[in-house]
Amino acid sequence: MKNAKKLLASVLCALVLFTGCGTAAAPSAPSVPSEMPQQAPEAQPTQNEPYRAMWVSYLEWENFDFSSESAFRSGAEALMQSCSDLGLNTVIAQVRPFGDAFYKSRYFPWSHICTGTQGQDPGYDPLAILVETAHQKGLRLEAWVNPYRIRLNGTRPAGELADENPVNRHPEWAKTVGEGVYLDPANADARRYVAAGVAEIVQNYEVDGIHFDDYFYPTTDPAFDKDQYDPALGSLEEWRRDNVNQLMRACYAAVKEVRPGCTFGVSPQGNMENNYDGQYSDVGLWLSTPGYVDYVMPQIYWGFGFATKNGNTRWAFENITAEWAALERAASVKLYFGLGAYRIGEGEGGSNDPARWQTGHALADQAKQAETIADGYALYRSDFLFKNGTWPELAAAECEALRQQNA
Q1: CA-CA distance, 94 to 127, in Å (whole number)?
Q2: Model-level pTM?
Q3: DSSP-assigned letter for residue 291
Q4: Cα–chain-centroid distance for residue 196?
């Protein structure tokens, strides 16, 4: 055990953002592993068990009680029990939504969601409690990280960004789109910073995985990085995709060097073209080539039989899942589907008939398909199943259908 701790400490020391290991200087550009494992460990909960997960986002945390350790623990225990009761085996908990943290970090300030003020210590460690309570219920806990986003708009995060926020420490890393603020995907120092932050979580907490969502480049506007882009490097689109690929490789390598059995996965949009052309995420490459991710989980938020206004049925659940399942996939990379629990009762909107989302078993039907043609699923998000004030009876019916199916 002592040798293992020394090994982990040495790895993190190579990643940390200080002028010397253990010094108190402000974080700068870390170094990250240059070599990545060519074959990942199996990315599955346990042998022969499908992946069954629940997303818990910052939107859930905004309604959680962070006032004391006991209050937070009580809420976490209830959440994990509810997930366990559904027959799930994984909770994906958002722990860094805005360049901030639900844990003590050397690189990111405390999240404003914990106390109302970014950078203020709540006096306890929410992530440690989430890991503990999940494991007590036999659940895996994946730490969900938004890699680039610092500010979404004028209200999220609420209040001022802390002095310790990376864009205040390194304003040269900041990029803006409207009221949004993001780390620059083209900045190698910023990428190393994100990778070091990922390694820190894996080093300090017994998380079972690191999870990225679908927020990469926030715009297609050429003005976003016109001062950095060199046409000699290829097309703007190819250059941007390579920047994202470098981030993914660095984060994958950081996770595996610290703890090889910990998984690293991503949940891109269900629309492949939006990923590739809009956010410059080459998800097909990540699926087919070891060294980027352990799993890809596209967000398939359309129901069975869905059709657009012009009659296009490509996005119907049965069609788009088959399209994803037909993509080339490396043996070490799993395919899961993200399912839209927020559609319960409401449907997809517009002129579409919401009846397919009012059966009381829409999610169970989709989950069955996900386990038939892929390796599992996740449900977005917990409040729409456990605290649905608009469609409480339908949500309860959906939960019961999932329980019976997963029994």
Answers
A1: 10
A2: 0.91
A3: T
A4: 16
